[in-house]
Amino acid sequence: MAFVWFHKLGSPRHFYRLACRLTPWLAVITAALFLAGVYDGLFVAPPDYQQGDSYRIMFVHVPAAWMSLFTWMFMTVAGVLTLVWRMKVAESLMRAAAPLGASFTFLALVTGSLWGKPMWGTYWVWDARLTSELILLFLYLGFIALQSAIDDRRAAGRAGAVLALVGVVNIPIIHYSVQWWHTLHQGPTVTKLGSPSITWAMGLPLLIMAIAFMTYFAMAVLKRARCDILAAEADSGWVRDLAADSRT
Amino acid sequence: MDWQAFFAMGGYAAFVWPSYALALVVLVVNLAAPHRRERQLLRRLARGRGHSGHAR
């Protein structure tokens, strides 16, 4: 049973159909979560006793930063499936995730610097956390450039998978950078072991926004993967039928 | 609700609002782009000019 399901999921045709069915639901869930999260974060949550209202940047910054790490790990898993089992769907998902990861990283860097200016007195500092996150952005851009530099899709997929596997060493470096080195960036308040040192009034909107970014990622990666699958399978019968149907 | 105070963000408006605006733009663009591309791809394939070489 489970094997059949897995096998079906590996077929681009079935995966495309499943993705088409899932994306509208994910869109509704994501929109609802973002509305709730932004409302809770901007209207309900109290100002911070030290940072005033500036800390509200956190509700965008922290989920974006989490997703920037998650997306690379997602690409690494997809990369393994691409290299070991030659799964076309995994290859499409990996390629689809890269621009999203780059976007999350970019968002994390810019919102972080907008938060840093009023709190630290500077937009940027070359410390471990910020520098390793910037390197992550370059890794994403390198992955994207690699995909467009190699004409053969499958070869590009394998090269990308190798880059994803090598680049994953940067992920723990980013995560632990605030503990390994002295830095302006604060340590973890939510993901540390034991009880998180954040009050519920601020933690709840952060949690909602984090889930919203997650479902957003699921929706956006499926949408991008749909394009990638169509392009890869352009010569197969089911795509031609689909194209012919979409005309009417 | 004091809207003026709300938009002032305790004096941090210049940092808070650009953050949210940028997030909105980035998230919307990342959905709109594949949405448009998929329709273009299907249209091109329907015309019979679909070859994997062009569509990347």
Structural account:
Chain A is mainly α. Chain A has helices at 2-9, 12-44, 58-85, 88-120, 128-149, 153-167, 170-180, 200-232, 237-247. Chain A is globular. The model of chain A has no long low-confidence stretch (mean pLDDT 92). Chain B is mainly α and 56 residues long. Chain B has one domain. Classes of the chains: A mainly alpha (248), B mainly alpha (56). Chain A binds chain B through residues 38, 42-43, 47, 52-54, 56-57, 60-61, 64, 96, 99-100, 103, 106-107, 110-111, 114-115, 117-118, 148, 151, 153, 216, 219-220, 223-224, 226-227, 230-235, 239-240, 242-244, 246-247, and chain B through 6, 9-12, 15-16, 18-20, 22-23, 26-27, 30-31, 34-35, 37-39, 41-43, 45-46, 50-53, 55-56.
Instruction: Using the CA coordinates, give the radius of gyration of chain A.
Output: 20 Å
What string gives the helices and strands of chain B in order? Answer: HH
Question: What's the Cα radius of gyration of chain B?
Answer: 21 Å
Cα-to-Cα separation, first versus last residue of chain B: 50 Å
What is the straight-line distance between the termini of chain A?
A: 37 Å
Keywords:
heterodimer; A: 248 residues; mainly alpha; 9 helices; 78% helix; 0% strand; B: 56 residues; 71% helix; rod-shaped; disordered C terminus
Give the arrangement of secondary structure elements.
The complex is a heterodimer of chains A (248) and B (56).
Chain A: H1 2-9, H2 12-44, H3 58-85, H4 88-120, H5 128-149, H6 153-167, H7 170-180, H8 200-232, H9 237-247
Helix pairs in contact in A: 2-8, 3-4, 3-6, 3-8, 4-5, 4-6, 4-8, 5-6, 5-7
Chain B: H1 3-8, H2 13-46
Would you summarize the structure shown here?
The complex is a heterodimer of chains A (248) and B (56). With 248 residues, chain A is mostly helical.
